[in-house]
Amino acid sequence: MQSLKELYKIGNGPSSSHTMGPKRAVELFKNNHLDATKFKIILYGSLALTGKGHLTDYIIRETLKDYQCEIVFDEKMKCEVHPNTFDIFAYKGEELLETWRVYSVGGGTFRVEGEEEISAIDIYKEKNWYEIKSYCIENNIDLYEYVCQVEGNDIKQFLNEIWNSMQNTIKKGLSTTGTIPGKLKLQRRSKDILEKIMENENETLRRTRLLSAYAYATSEENASGGIIVTAPTCGASGVLPAVLYYMKEEYSIDDEKIIKALAVAGVIGNIIKSNASISGAECGCQAEIGTACSMAAAACSYLLGLGLDRIENSAETAMEHHLGLTCDPIYGYVQIPCIERNAVAAMRAVDSSFLSIMLEQHTMISLDLVIETMYETGKDLQSHYRETSEGGLAKKYCRNKFYNDEMKE
């Protein structure tokens, strides 16, 4: 497994695989060919089908703004290796300098075909939850101490920067009103949700309101192209910050312990990223929101002082009940159902954590088993349910809207 620095990334939304990954790849390719006069990019698969709504072409043009740039959306080519595939060509005049085939694999990470050295190296020897848990028990350490052993003490400063960025995004989202960019003309809701809180609200409604407001705040910033942290992706970036912010505010937990919980969440995200996928285009939204919920549940359990067994149980429960979740963004925007889905997952994460307290420590389904199941389920999902906007809500909404508009005429 790679460093948590490869999991948590600060950058612009709305999609880690459609904006952050392509931006990083194109930027690296450009820096290798500063003498080029023209670049051509061909987008395939999910990048071609939902790239407009995800601002893929916009971020590429911004990255190559000093050069002539041609972008082609090829919706017909089948992507055998990964659904987020694109080619980059560098030209000097009419001379082709080099070509890369790039796979944007989720979380802002990309791979270049035939260029293994570009990928970050694995620094964790343990490959799954069972191995990590066994190591922690054998050495009498918790998950945060395990992360520090592997990553070094500087990981604390990195996680502090990540947490500060998450908090800034929530605060900005809660103070911003107006319409989210795109033809859905979706209104921002986070500020309104928070301000309608009442003194006599019961505990359950208050928790729902706060978690929803915080999740909406980050997700609305993401949908607007604002600065967010991949946790593990842009589309699922509202879940973990909402839970951590809620726990800080409601349980008076200090930032030092929140940072430790971020490390715990990162371990869960890393396991899923390494053994399955965090890409909606590869495995549906279960890979994004499901992973985010699992990470947040583990973090919540750690903040509640629970041990390894209950942390595993809460993370497993959170993922298990997202199995089969499709990725079907309307018009390709990371708005509907994505924003609301972040709020629901934040609530489910906290519920999964508290449920683990009530259940027996040793359950029949392990975290490693549910991760393996998620990956197989994702591969079994038909392609139009994996971030193409050709099925599910995206297809039904567009069809019904066309019908309704015809009726109005």
In short:
This protein is α+β, with helices and mostly antiparallel strands.
Can you offer a commentary on this structure?
This protein has a 5-stranded mixed beta sheet. It is 53% helix and 10% strand. Helix 6 packs across helix 8 (203-223). The protein has 409 residues and is of the alpha+beta class. The chain folds into 2 domains: 13-118, D-3-phosphoglycerate dehydrogenase, domain 3 (60s Ribosomal Protein L30, Chain: A, 2-Layer Sandwich); 129-398, 2-methylcitrate dehydratase PrpD (Orthogonal Bundle). The longest helix is centred in the middle third of the chain and has 21 residues, at 203-223.
For the structure shown, list the relevant keywords.
five-stranded mixed β-sheet, 16 helices, 60s Ribosomal Protein L30, Chain: A, 409 residues, 53% helix, 2-methylcitrate dehydratase PrpD
- N-to-C order of helices and strands: EHEHHEEEEHHHHHEHHHHHHHH
CATH second-level architecture of the largest domain: Orthogonal Bundle
How do the strands of the widest beta sheet line up side by side? 3-2-4-5-6
CATH class of the largest domain: Mainly Alpha
Q: Indicate the multimeric state.
A: single chain
Helix percent reads: 40-55%
Global geometry: globular
Fold-level CATH name of the largest domain: 2-methylcitrate dehydratase PrpD
- Our count of domains comes out at 2
> In total, how many beta strands?
7
Overall mean pLDDT: 93
Summing up helix and strand content along with how strands pair, one would put the structural category as alpha+beta
* Ends apart, CA distance between termini: 57 Å
| Overall radius of gyration | 21 Å
Strand content: 5-15%
Largest sheet: 5 strands, mixed
Figure out the total of helices.
16
